[in-house]
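Board notes, transcribed. Complex of a protein with 6-O-phosphono-beta-D-fructofuranose.
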Amino acid sequence: MPYHRATLSTFLIDERRRTPSFDPELAGLIKDVEVACKYIASAVSRGRLVEEKASTKVNIQGEEQKPLDVIANEMVLQTCDSTEQLLGVVSEEMENPYPIQRGRNGRYLLVYDPLDGSSNLDLNVTVGSIFSVLRAPEGAQELKPEHFLQPGISQVAAGFTLYGPSVMLVLTLGRGVHGFTLDREVGTFILTHPDMRIPEETREFAINASNERFWEAPVRHYVEECKQGKSGPRGVDFNMRWIASMVAEVYRILIRGGLFMYPRDTKDPSKGGRLRLLYEANPMSLIVEQAGGASWTGRERILEVKPTALHQRIPVILGSRSEVERLVSYHHAYDQGEELSFKSPLFANRSIFHS
Ligand code: F6P
């Protein structure tokens, strides 16, 4: 390994030099998150060997927890329990925020999804953790749920890890996106992907096509155009991808570009979407925007949405900027009552199939 490569620690020290306003307390907090992620990486790689030790239940999302969901959540709590910079944390796996006893003067809040994509754990595919850091309200000493209800634009840092063939940590401090690979032999994250940029030219899209009958017309229109390939209005062939693990999908978008969608649908109208605003959509949207991409619900820029509840769900359309803008324009046209000119009459807006 070339010894001169930056580690996550030296990157954070250099950040202070590059950006004098960068708070060293935030660096300390990121280091604690890094430690939690290393523990989780180790547990995930041991799979079944560690799973027997955890008891599970149905989480606040109404989803059955996997043993590793519980283990990963505990690992974050235990690692951050003495993080003085933190007033409190909230997790996708817990109903209520968790106050940090030693952080009564903490100036930050941590939001995290300890194990994203965990429904795939038994398949041994790539899963990960997602995290987001917010400022605690000035002078707040007692943690309240509403402290976390800040729009994504207020995030001071966001990132995710990938527990795949290699372990990676992707981080933004609001000034670009940087990827680090874990050198397991020395236990250190090394900067391997500085300044990640989402390619504009793309021929890939990702969506769970089994939900097609529940989609809105603009999404059906976009997907149909892609599927028509060279002979359709886009004039090129597209590939479709679906890993069912958002961390892996967003990493692919960072490397190859493309579009990832979990759009609004009519499958369960009581939910605002499939993905969680605080734990998934906001951190990923900051990362994608910082890498030159875009992230919308179809109608709103996700980072500007004011959350109303900790576990709120939201539609997500993110990726290469021009593709996101194209699909947002389809939503706009549809909402204005414009006809979307589908090649196939089956998909025609307000045709006999869509009254
Ligand atoms: O929200 C958890 C998650 O596993 C995401 O990582 C992923 O994008 C999505 O759910 C997969 O959903 P589905 O099971 O509907 O394909």
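The longest strand covers residues 108-116. The first helix runs from residue 8 to 18.
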